[in-house]
Amino acid sequence: MPSAWFGLRNTPCAAVLNWLYILLKIISEELSPLFIAIVGVL
User: Fold this and answer.
1) pTM
2) Could you tell me where the DSSP H helices lie in the chain?
3) Is 70 exceeded by the pLDDT of residue 41?
């Protein structure tokens, strides 16, 4: 994750945002084939 995003590295807010970033990455990787399949059907 780009450290330029936050100057608040050790704050709870940064921890939450980092967790959300990881979660979104996992979700997007899981859903990519699904989106490709949907677009292919359309």
Assistant:
1) 0.49
2) 12-41
3) yes
